[in-house]
């Protein structure tokens, strides 16, 4: 089975800190995605990547950046964390639309 | 822009009763359709998918869904729910068979004893 691993399940950070959320997949998928999930708002796409060193903005990229130096790893970076970035962050990967997405377990980030 | 509508944000149902969770999408082009389930504090898991062929699709945990092209719907059903089915359910669409999906807002299913 494809596995998508997010390094932390729960994270608490202070306002202004630089935060790294890591995501690793083990099935050689080209496509990787970062979403945030908030009550009543569903899943919102932050950034995605179709290949190494490639990135595309999603619907809500402000305040975030990403890095994809290796095919299996897609990192989400909060340059200066703010309280409105408190959320559940979900990473996903796929090799193509017909396979659907495989999601990680999520990282619940709290910024205080 | 493409959109996915899940008309019911919350669905309470008694254990062993049938349930239908509704999903409609707005697209005139070809799509793949998916249902995902999310248990508390977990990621999303694939329940089932429609790619082509038979419009009735069976998935895990006794769920099934029916694709209706004319009504652009993909409703999820289970004939008898269990307490363990309590979760949030998301409908998703892959537009033009692409790798970018559009997700619905989710339906919270609560199964009551």
What's this, in brief?
The complex is a heterodimer of chains A (112) and B (113). Chain A has 112 residues and is mainly beta.
Structure overview:
The complex is a heterodimer of chains A (112) and B (113). With 112 residues, chain A is mainly beta. Helix content of chain A is 0%, strand content 53%. Chain A contains no helices and 12 strands. In chain A, the strands form 3 sheets. In chain A, strands 2, 5, 6, 7, 10, 11 and 12 form a 7-stranded mixed beta sheet that branches. In chain A, strands 3-9-8 form a 3-stranded antiparallel beta sheet, with no helix packed on it. The mean pLDDT of chain B is 92. The radius of gyration of chain B is 13 Å and the shape is globular. In chain B, a hairpin with a 5-residue loop joins strand 7 (56-58) and strand 8. Chain B is built from no helices and 12 strands. The termini of chain B are far apart. By secondary structure, chain B is mainly β. Classes of the chains: A mainly beta (112), B mainly beta (113). At the A-B interface, strand 6, strand 10 and strand 11 of A face strand 5, strand 6 and strand 10 of B.
């Amino acid at each position: 089975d494809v596995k998508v691993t997010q390094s932390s399940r729960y994270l608490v950070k202070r306002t202004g800190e630089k935060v790294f959320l890591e995501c690793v997949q083990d099935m050689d998928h080209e496509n990787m995605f970062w979403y945030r999930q908030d009550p009543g708002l569903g899943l919102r796409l932050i950034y995605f990547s179709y290949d190494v060193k490639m990135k595309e903005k999603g619907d809500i990229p402000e305040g975030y950046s990403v890095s994809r130096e290796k095919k299996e790893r897609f990192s989400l970076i909060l340059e200066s964390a703010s309280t409105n970035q408190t959320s559940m962050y979900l990473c996903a990967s796929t090799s193509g639309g017909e396979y659907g997405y495989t999601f990680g377990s999520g990282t619940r980030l709290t910024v205080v | 822009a493409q959109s996915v509508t899940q008309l019911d944000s919350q669905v309470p149902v008694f254990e062993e009763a049938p349930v239908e969770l509704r999903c409609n999408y707005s697209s005139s082009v070809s799509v793949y359709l998916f249902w995902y389930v999310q248990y508390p504090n977990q990621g999303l898991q694939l329940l089932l998918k429609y790619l082509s062929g038979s419009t009735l699709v069976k998935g895990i945990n006794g769920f099934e869904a029916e694709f209706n092209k004319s009504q652009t719907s993909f409703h999820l059903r289970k004939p008898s729910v269990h307490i363990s089915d309590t979760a949030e359910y998301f409908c998703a669409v892959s537009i033009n068979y692409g790798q970018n999906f559009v997700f619905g807002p989710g339906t919270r299913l609560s199964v009551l004893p």
